[in-house]
Amino acid sequence: MENTKELKTWLNDFGLNHPLVIAGPCSAETEEQVLKIAHELKDTDATVLRAGIWKPRTRPGNFEGVGALGLKWLQKAKKETGMLTATEVANKDHVKLALEHDIDILWIGARTTVSPFIVQEIADALEGTDKIVLVKNPVNPDLPLWLGAIERLYTANIKKLGVIHRGFSTYEKTRYRNNPEWQIPIELQNRFPDLPLICDPSHIAGRRDIIFDICQTALDLNFDGLMVETHYDPDNAWSDAKQQITPSSLVQMMVDLKVRKATD
Ligand code: PEP
Ligand code: MN
Known about the structure:
Blueprint: H1 9-13, E1 20-24, H2 31-41, E2 46-50, H3 69-81, E3 84-88, H4 92-100, E4 105-108, H5 110-113, H6 116-126, E5 132-136, H7 143-155, E6 161-165, H8 183-191, E7 197-199, H9 201-205, H10 211-220, E8 225-229, H11 247-256
Parallel strand pairs: 1-2, 1-8, 2-3, 3-4, 4-5, 5-6, 6-7, 7-8
Helix pairs in contact: 2-3, 6-7
The chain binds phosphoenolpyruvate and manganese (II) ion.
């Protein structure tokens, strides 16, 4: 990853505002749910709709996503609202299906970034794509593992790359679900200043009440974007119910956050 200058340009190419705001439910649940959330987000700062359809859960027995069916719902949401779409891919079959359905942004989740063979398989399936690919940090605080995943994708000639900081697991209980360990994304930012860096406050927090502070810290640290889990009925979400916020809370949060101007 010698010359990474081109990496940041996709943010501008897409006419995406600073900061880039990606919002939407942890999981796509029903077609109605996806469309309702997309319409509630339509005229907000969120330009990208996220929804997980393949959900790699830590323990079996939890909702593991609606699967490929959800791709059609995302397509419909894009058609109706004009928002870009984003979903998680965890193997090469997911990549193939997401590309076939013209999903705009594919992200690699924290439980996948830890696995070099799977990341390589995903990179091979994406070879040369002009889609945006975002790499979440691995679950554990291991910068080389995160870098390795980024390098595998970069080597597969994927130029619209970015990274998502979602915090790191610890055995001890802290106020966070996943400890932010801000020094790790900062080191990544220092090494690759042209790699767009997005903060996922939802998975760092694991709870609604500290989302704002995490977003403000990320913006103060010059992050390029935020990915915030958003649901019209967070308490009854099928996954990550405690950390999702409503679209109207997101709107208020974006008003209250202090965003650094490029000239600051
Ligand atoms: C998610 O974005 O819903 C998700 C599963 O995140 P992570 O891979 O960060 O745990
Ligand atoms: Mn989630």
